[in-house]
Amino acid sequence: MQESEAFILEKERIMLAKNSNSYDCVVVGAGLAGLMAARNLQRSGQTVLVIEARDRVGGRMHGEQLPSGQWIDRGGQWVGSTQDRFLALLDEYQIRRFPSPSEGKKVFLYDGNRYEFDGFFQGLPEGEPPGVREADWQDAMTAWERFDALTKIFPPGHPQQTEQNQKLDSQTFAQWIAENTQTAFGHWYFSYMARAVGFLGPAEPSQVSLLHVLWGQNCAPQSEHPEAELLHGGAGQIPGKIVAELDHQVRLGEPVLQINHHAAGVEILTAKGQYAAQYVVVSMPPHLAGRIIYHPPLPPLREQLTQRVPMGCCAKILVSYDRPFWREKGLAGIGLGNCEWIELCADSSDPETGVGVIATFVVGDRYRRWQAMHDADRQAAVLSDLANYFGDRALTPASYDEVDWPSDPWAGGGYAAFMPPGVWTSFGEALAAPVGRIYWAGTEMADRWPGFFEGAVRTGEAAAESIRALLQNSPRQETV
Length: 480
What we know:
The protein contains 15 helices and 19 strands. The chain is α/β, with parallel strands linked by helices and 480 residues long. Its cofactor is FAD.
């Protein structure tokens, strides 16, 4: 005789209740979004467990202290004035901020020529032209006006499957650049943007959807200066402060292998144990979430989505000096240009330590060539470009740290994931939509400030609030 659906659900409920490792919610992933979800649920009186594959917490929010006493952020590090939820978190934990160092001349290197200029120019048409020909600058600014007008068509939220969006999603950003710029400088100007901005991965223009670029510039605009401030002690201190509230309910070094989900709850299987919960928050980039086995399988759109959302191709390099020597030359420590390896570098020195720190990146196609080199050659390549920006003193650092995010199996790249052509309008609806008792969190799921700490905080908070409301409106299942 076939068992009724109600009887099967009751058996599943009893099985979950008997499990001594049973929680209201299990959070998979101890990055910023997952930790925020766990913290907020615990504060509302729910029982929570966080399971993390790495041997540390923080995900892409990770720092370390140099022998000099200076803290460096191996992951993200900046914050802007409109990133409200992240700023509230910093205020709550009394983490002090300081303006990103920017006084002095910026350096622009283009086709072997070096220019020093005032004002602000970091992929945006602000400040004075950085020494290039007037025709080149005007070409970029004319194209920017067209680009900026296109970004204003998007309402709040993720891109929807409209006819206009499908047309934009069918093109690469490279196609738009080719059609809207006439000069080599104009072409580089927008290509650099694809490789520098957080919500773009980074990616080469030929890899990313035009729709994704336009939408991202609308909901995470560079005009709001997301790199305006840095944190005393670095962003990497934040995960530990959150974990301190979680009563040791964090399991490290324990990758999740399978999630069984049904109407009565969820089971989470790892290489070390088995846990039961009413709900689960999977807080990781889409491609990593797709590695977990789900039973029953996730809806086809979600399965297809996770196969199509790659991480950006980026290594971060942090170079320290006994002092910020570039300031003695009247330089701001900010450089950009079409160098062989380094298109962007920025002064990240904490004024309270006196140590000089430059943060820089090797991204996209440059990364692939650079990563294949021997260690000493990679370092020499980076320092050579920094010397072109700031002088030969850059060749003799006190410390040199490479963070090769694509080689990290629990990240797969950085800064974040991006959408290639066709993904948003074909599969985007599955990005943040819960599947039964499975909720998703992570900066990639955000519809405001995706790719930034702010996006991670927002999605962690949203997942916690959704689950809190559901638990509050349903009777608690007591352990039997």
